[in-house]
Specification:
single chain, 218 residues, five-stranded mixed sheet
Length: 218
């Protein structure tokens, strides 16, 4: 092989700087892709964070509105707040062994209905209205209720219907009865029993079917 043929063979190989340039171009491309992905991820994260902050602000506004509505009855002892459950003294709502709503109780429900409805709508929850009694049995000869289960059920229904009459959508509220079960304090005397005679209102989660029906409603 002559020297000229050897030189021609060497000239056919790509120069090292060209290979290095291609490598650098590829690396720059990968870097650009990573940079675009990082910027997109940061933008999405920022938007998600902003949405979460807005949700928390709205939730805080709902909580403040509900607290404002509860401030006076809480201060006067007509209402209690335990673990998110609003308890209303039975003496405020009803007279002894009665399920007929008193004027004071109706006025209180009128005050609470609007902020409760806003809270339930925004949080996609239902309102469970629960009736409770003390441990004393219904007096014999009572023509209206055979036992504490029936009394607590009727009182819960009365409050539920009153809320609906005040404007609460029927699909948002339901009644439950617990009788003498689940007292807040031991039934030791007349004072403790008066605490156990109560109606509680507590937000509870909707099931998926309820959410679908709510979103497809008129």
């Amino acid at each position: 092989m002559s020297i000229s043929e050897l030189d021609d063979g060497l000239d056919q190989e790509p120069p090292i700087w060209a290979i290095f340039g291609d490598l650098m171009t590829g690396l720059v491309g990968v870097f650009v892709l990573l940079l675009v992905w990082t910027l997109g991820f940061q933008l999405e994260l920022s938007q998600t964070l902003e949405q979460e902050i807005q949700k928390r602000e709205v939730a805080e506004q709902r909580r403040q509105a509900l607290e404002a509505a509860l401030a006076d009855p809480l201060a006067t002892g007509r209402v209690t707040l335990r673990d998110g459950r609003i308890g209303i003294s039975g003496s405020v709502l009803f007279s002894l062994n009665s399920a007929e709503l008193q004027e004071e109780g109706r006025a209180l429900l009128h005050t609470l209905r609007a902020p409760l409805q806003v809270y339930l709508t925004d949080s996609e929850q239902l309102l469970m209205v629960s009736g409770f009694t003390d441990d004393l049995p219904i007096q014999q000869g009572n023509l209206h209720f055979s036992d504490n289960w029936e009394l607590s059920a009727q009182r819960a229904l009365t409050v539920t219907r009153a809320l609906i009459e005040e404007g609460m959508p029927p699909s948002m509220v339901f009644a439950a009865a617990f009788g003498a079960q689940q007292p807040v304090v031991a039934n030791a005397d007349s004072e403790s029993r008066s605490q156990n005679r109560r109606v509680e209102m507590a937000p509870v989660p909707r099931v998926s079917g309820d959410k679908a029906a709510l979103s497809s409603g008129p």
